[in-house]
Amino acid sequence: MVADWMEVDWLSGKMIFFFLIIWYFVLKYWENNGTLDRWNATRVFGIALMLRTKHGQRTLEKMAKPRAFWRAYGEVSLWICILLMFFVLLLLLLSFVLSILDPPTADPPSAAELVAIPGLNPVIPLWWGIIAFVVALVIHEFGHGLQARAHGMRVRSFGLLTLGPLPLGAFAEPEGEELMKAPNRERMRLFAAGPATNIFACLFCFLIIAGMAGQFVAADPGLHASAIVEGSGADDAGLTAFDVIISINQSTVADLDDFSLAMNGLSAGDTTEMIIVKHDSGETETISVLLTDKHQHYLDNGASEEWLEAMGIKPGDAFVGVIGLASGTAGIDRIAGPLAPGVEASWGAKALATPIQIMTTIAIPVDNMGTAINPVEEGMLAAGEGWLASILGVEGMLFIVHLMFWLVWVNLLLGFFNLIPMLPFDGGHIFRDTIRGIIKRFDRFGRRFGWWKIHPLKLEQVTNKTSSRSSLVMLIIIVFIMVIPYI
Predict the structure, then answer these.
(1) Of 24, 56, 57, 455, which residue has the fewest beta carbons closer than 10 angstroms?
(2) Quick check: 289 and 249 in contact, CB under 8 A?
(3) Of 105, 120, 100, nearest to 9 (Cα)?
(4) Are 392 and 382 in contact (CB under 8 A)?
(5) pTM of the full predicted structure?
(6) What is the rounded distance in angstroms from the CA atom of residue 34 to the CA atom of residue 24?
(7) Mind listing the domains of the chain with CATH numbers?
């Protein structure tokens, strides 16, 4: 197994290396024969292609006409980005400290996992990834463009950064002189609008997923386990992960309450009859499960008597041997989180939990091997009785869910990544202008009382030096976090 992993990792690394070499020479050839000039394109960083276009400017002009609205949008975006930028900074610092105090012992990520290239990275599917990246990049740069026009700055062109056929980034190119002469606050709004637009898109797409969740029902009402304890009664009886338990001792099991009620009064050593639907064949079977001792099971796995007492687990309690019991709609409910149907909580609690739920979506493709919903759990879903379900059917609704999920995932990744307080990211520009604003206030305070004056050139020198040095520190931290698993 280890040898296979190393072979795949080595092959992935060689593929990436040869692709970059070939792409470099292709770009170099196009640059020398004038092809890039005819395309209004530029080679940057040696291997990236910057394509410029005038398309989209008319649409931008029309959308930017309510300038007061977009200025207010920029101010809200700025406050949100400042808050999230400090959150990203704290997260990076915490990861850096933990990497020093407790270095990771797991196998390091493969070469394919280190690059966010759809289809090559095992977590990001090819077509969903490409669609989501293109949409996220376009709305990110359109957010910048809208703020530029709302504050009277011209946008020279839009553009796309590519590595071969794969999108790396996009850009809205304002007039450089107008951008540098713009007031500090207006420039900060411009840089904040891109990441904030991605964050708002995350929320919008997540709400669509939450609305779709109520349109699904379980194809087979019952409960399934995500894992079976080896050597347990369930394992010995032939129950496997994702088999649906629909009855225990002739009592219907539709939810966790039914399961608890059916298990009530049973003890270790008892035998219970279960009716199950096999997930691989769809056939119904009846199995007999010998219940074991839950108290002893947890003791054998390192639990303390104090913890067992606190959890109310006593010797002789029945243990089936199932882990992660969930209903047939668990796949979609897991994404919707607090907004899933059946979640009993106040709207205030749901609103507070929703941002946390959105951030947890980053881990879902990792757990599900590059999918939004585990393929087995996806097969457990059926269309409900809602009007949307009757129109789209289960396949149509799943298409929308997958599209919205990857838009959430990529917009979240792009938004937070751009808020790293390091140049040339948007967060680095916001941080630099924040430093400039603080120094200007300090200068005005000194001038008011005649205590000191800071020369404008000195102000810019201090601002640029502070932002460049902080960016270098952030780069060292990020590189250390990425490299430490290999040491």
Answers:
(1) 455
(2) no
(3) 120
(4) no
(5) 0.82
(6) 16
(7) 37-216+329-419 (no CATH), 223-327 (2.30.42.10)
How far apart (Å, rounded) are the C-alpha atoms in residues 262 and 289? Answer: 13
Asked if 193 and 80 count as a contact pair (C-beta separation under 8 A), the reply is: no
Q: At residue 8, does pLDDT exceed 60?
A: no
Please list, residue by residue across 342-381, b when 16 or more beta carbons sit within 10 angstroms of its beta carbon and e when fewer do.
Answer: eeeeeeeebeeebeebbeebeebbeebebbbbbeebbbbb
96-136 per-position pLDDT tens digit: 898 888 877 767 676 666 667 676 677 888 788 888 888 88
Euclidean distance between the first and the last CA atom of the chain, given in angstroms as a whole number? 22
Place of tokens 């104090």: 306
Give the DSSP letter string of 336-383: HGGGSTT----HHHHHHHHHHHHHHGGGHHHHTTS-SS-HHHHTTEEE
Which DSSP category does 485 fall into? G
In Å, what is the CA distance from 52 to each residue of 41, 172, 222, 260, 455?
6, 9, 55, 62, 38
